[in-house]
């Protein structure tokens, strides 16, 4: 099953807005919470309360500082999970067929019963989207919450990935990126959505929306400025006398 | 990349064992009887021992047989098939030589071919990875095959050809190191393309996702050995090339041959350690490292 499908019926994926992400890590927590008790093996932690905690996560948030040529630096929070690549190198390297890309919706999954934990797929992924679970010895990755999005037992508004449902600043959007009329595709077109490491030819389905241009502090101040100029330049009355008296000392 | 001892041992020793089997396979006047038995036993011990040690780093070694299923796309799966083909063919060839005293040359040649194919598939597991620019080159396959046949030649007591082959392998090794040092920069992947933020300004990793370490960093952003990389390269080069060549040029090559061989193997082990330790995975960029 490690041959990639020629074409998938839909391209379900995420659009992540780098402009609005506030770096709160709420999606990290909700992802871990949902996925540790649903699809596949739990996401284990090693030494969680000790001096050197670590664990398996399917979604991690980096933060980058971007320094434009002029003006102050910008801080950009950068969520990263599996991009469900169309040309997924992680799938074709898998020797067991445990890794596969679904024809119906393009989701890249690991069948944990077949996985031997060789780790080669994690080497093949440029984005660090796959982590070998220490306790279970199998590969874990984002499932796009395949057990939520089609789950009729959940209320309709919950049938989106846990991270999308949780994000308090609406920085994560879910939909079919193969359909040019879908909300997510429109968003990508409008905001100039981009691929990560396009030169590697993975053709990621997930897109990132670049931060919008920032206002500049040091440019011409607006028309209200004269009205906001300080009214009292020189202190008068008692304060004026005090000011002068102190000056003379 | 994390230099896992099991993978280093696997690729070095199985390469050596397969190299020995290769020479036994193409030998026009192969040993027979107990001498043949000894040679083949060494070849098999190394090749099979190496393959078995490669399963040690699996998270689920009990399912290793599943790795035979995806030969259509996966080099790891192809390696499994090639190894079985090589070991079965050579096993049959060896059985006839040792016990029946029959030399079926064509069978040996087919087996030798599969030995080389196996080493090639091993090398392709690494060479195919665009994510590790240092490995992503045809030179990686050339290096693995050259080291395998050179070591095999020494192991089978072929002094002249062994001498030539370790010089060739050393040359490829030097070239691999030299071109490898710039291949990451040449790949065009950097923090700008990784984040897509390059159009705004200079990008710098400000904060990693977690205060602690994680699988990705341990496995793919192994930076410990790089500080001494240059010294280790010299050591590897001395051991795998210079010392064995000098020893083999001494009067009694068969006595010093063993020392030459041991030195060569030690050198290849160091070089293989560096092969992993020096390799930078592009995911390191996201963590502000390489
Ligand atoms: S992001 Fe990584 S794990 Fe996900 S499909 Fe692409 S290559 Fe595979
Ligand atoms: S770790 Fe599992 S899913 Fe990944 S390549 Fe190996 S067998 Fe396939």
From TrEMBL, chain A:
Q: Which Gene3D superfamilies match?
A: 3.30.70.20
Q: Which PROSITE patterns match?
A: 4FE4S_FER_1, 4FE4S_FER_2
Keywords linked to the UniProt accession: 4Fe-4S, Iron, Iron-sulfur, Metal-binding
Pfam families in the record: Fer4_11 (PF13247), Fer4_4 (PF12800)
SUPFAM superfamilies with a match to the protein in the record: 4Fe-4S ferredoxins
Q: What InterPro entries does this protein's entry cite?
A: 4Fe4S_Fe-S-bd, 4Fe4S_Fe_S_CS, ET_IronSulfur_Cluster-Binding
Tell me where in this chain the 4Fe-4S ferredoxin-type domain is found.
12-42, 73-104, 106-135
- Name the CDD domains for this protein: PsrB (cd10551)
Q: Under which name does UniProt file this protein?
A: Ferredoxin
Naturally occurring in which organism (per UniProt):
Marivita lacus
Q: What is the lineage of its organism?
A: Bacteria, Pseudomonadati, Pseudomonadota, Alphaproteobacteria, Rhodobacterales
From TrEMBL, chain B:
Domain of life of the source: Bacteria
Q: Which UniProt keywords apply?
A: Membrane, Transmembrane, Transmembrane helix
The UniProt transmembrane annotation reads 7-26, 32-59, 80-100, 106-126, 138-155, 161-177, 230-249, 255-275
Q: Which InterPro entries match?
A: DmsC
The taxonomy runs: Bacteria, Pseudomonadati, Pseudomonadota, Alphaproteobacteria, Rhodobacterales
Q: What is this protein called?
A: DMSO reductase
